[in-house]
Amino acid sequence: MKYLDEYHDDHVARGLLEQIDATVTRPWTIMEVCGGQTHTIVREGIDQLLPDLIELVHGPGCPVCVTPLTVIDHALELARRPEVVLCSFGDMLRVPGSTDDLLRARAGGADVRVVYSPLDAVRVAAENPERTVVFFAVGFETTAPANALAVRHARDLGLTNFCALVAHVLVPPAMTAILTSPANRVQAFLGPGHVCTVAGWADYEVIARDFGVPIVITGFEPVDLLEGILAAVIQLEQGRHEVENQYARAARRDGNPTARDVVDEVFEPCDRAWRGIGVLPASGLRLRPDFVSFDAALRFPRLGPEVDEHEQCIAGAVLQGRAKPDECAAFGIDCTPEHPLGAPMVSSEGACAAYFAAGRVARVRAIGSATSAASAMPATSGRAPGGIDG
Amino acid sequence: MCLGVPGRIVQVDEQAVLRTGTVDFGGTRREVCLAYVPDVRVDEYVIVHVGFALCVIDEAEAARTWTLLEEIGRLDEEIGGPDVTSGDSIVRPGGPGDRT
Amino acid sequence: MVDASCPLPLPSGDVILLGHGSGGRLTAQLIDELFVPRFGDPELARLGDAAVLDLPDLSNLTNLTNLSNLTGEPEGPGRLACTTDAFVVSPPRFPGADIGSLAVFGTVNDLAMVGARPLALTVAFVLEEGLAIAELTAIVDSMAAAARHAGTRIVAGDTKVVERGAADRIFVVTSGVGLVPAGRHLDPSRIEVGDAVVVSGPIGSHGVAVLSRRTGVAFDTDVVSDSAPLTDLVEAMVAAGEVHALRDATRGGVATVLNEMAAAASVRITVDERAFPMLDGVRSGCAVLGLDPLYVANEGVCIAVVAGADVDSVVSAARSAPCGGEATVVGVVEAGDAGVHLRTGLGATRPLLVLTGDQLPRIC
Predict the structure, then answer these.
(1) Assigned architecture for domain C188-351
(2) Structure confidence at residue C69 (pLDDT)
(3) What are the backbone dihedrals phi and psi of residue A41, each rounded to the nearest 5 degrees, phi first?
């Protein structure tokens, strides 16, 4: 695959690692913002290969992880309505609500369907006029243009049976919240490559300046991440704090104006609760008044009670880089992928799931952890419509 | 977040209500919404996220950066860094022989 | 055309009805007009409550393979292998295979993994009311062709029909019996430190082919299912060297069977991520959906754990055998805690665990 395979070249990667090693002279703490970046780092073992002076902490860039518990419960409520077809990205199906998740709800008879594109959800609505389609619209700035166009397209088609449960979040307020925390240790960021492809990086220049932190807009493949880390280390060593663009093949300072225009037409900023972190002002998106008829939360107000997070879950600290997953008392014991207490253990690029999949239970569990983890056979469902086994 | 995959535009449907096209990801092809890349042409490369092209890849920029990266890789090769794809890795317990 | 003198009710038309599962005349019609002629097996045609098979002279099974490299194994009669499988894949037809051929080859491969040549298969159908008979016929034809290709027979069958919605068109349940030659013992208990780990072919093709036809995530792909019988491949490998254990990498992909073997044998297996062959369409299909090919299902690929000294001859023999053309060494059995470890493209090593459930496509 062109423009992907090259960025897995191990000679280039090792060359970058050598340059990082030759450049760093002091300990530095760098946060990669995006869950997709976390996924690559852990999957490829990049953090194992970096010099010990560099500590990578994983950020909150996982919409699955930060979607509030109450929103998950709301989605479950809607999915269980007989007239509703709940369409969702695959990522959300295993996220635990207070008692349940969408996969279990489907096993109980709810019509839950995985879609790859939000336009697929619009198509389901068009083809099933007697049902109401609720599309679970999560994501960061990257996904907002697609979700916005889907809502606008539904309006243009005159559909009255399509609505969206919106839980969009924005990256810059989360970075600001991390940096303003007195417990913050992050000194530089690998910025979100695809978010900036859409939104540009003007907001990040303000953060870099106000907080004195280098921000390197970085891609998602191993060479991208190593190049980004090298650029961040060079800035740190030189005492600079600028926005730099490693992901130049895709991200531009102005982002994608066409996409932003459609997002602005359909959505407006709002305060948003982040699971494990709390409410951050102006950190989310909601549908504008012109589109309220497509708001699932207004069409089907939440009936159930507010529920607190599981008390053992330290997702908030993990998402803000203040704790590592294997520092959690429940990690790998009470909280596992089979039985997650919080969202970061569920999402494939949530920090806790990434740590678990890379086998970092060893710190917490006794000898035989690898065996017991390896022999924890999957609860094979045989055939899951959203799954891939034959 | 934000799984975005590069692919090549092989066909554009200007007549569709939403501008759509077919993107080839290297053996996999899918219909993609091109509303956000209104000027893209066939054979150009885009980044695709949830069925939408979000940007056109700047191939000149990619080539320019790649030249520099390639040089870094060549230096590593010359220095003789461990070649993880060679036959002398942990995966050859027996005798010599091609392992691909 | 309706024969007014015929005691049967009006022809059932072109769909399966509940009556087809009742054991009465509609059932008999289905058996006589579809299953018996299409499967074409004389024992099946007898329509007894059970198939009765002559056993071959078991002492002659030693001629099937070269056993001179097995020491300390007792001579004597061979052994019987039996297996069962259920197939519920949706959609029932997809690029390269269908639920019928899948069922036949899947059962044959279960037998092959313990070193058995298939003797006979049985098949039971659970059909959803309303299934098009033309679709059933196509699947039956596919099974008959698969059985011939695999050198085996379908000797007994059963049919049940459930009301609409109680099954997804068609479920297929099989059993298979096979014969393991005397002295052949393929089992994880034989795995030793120093053994080589071999994959027989490119991974992930079946899962990608099926997924490409699933509503909601459909895409166009060049990839077809790799569903195929592995019996001849196994015979070639066993003849060429000391094979200790085999597993076919179906649900959960190669990562899952590697874990099963490591756990069963209590050994550490380390594999090289870059060594696994895969088609470009699998790589790109998985990239688009955010799936890891190591966990994607196969239906014509097995993992073989082979004595280190014999790995070259076994791989060479595999490459000349059907379905083994891209057989590759991917790893080694080492001393250490039981489990599977993966060496990444960058040279780091991390554990490779099993997943909780199915992989789901992701946007992140």
Answers:
(1) Alpha-Beta Complex (3.90)
(2) 36
(3) -60, -45
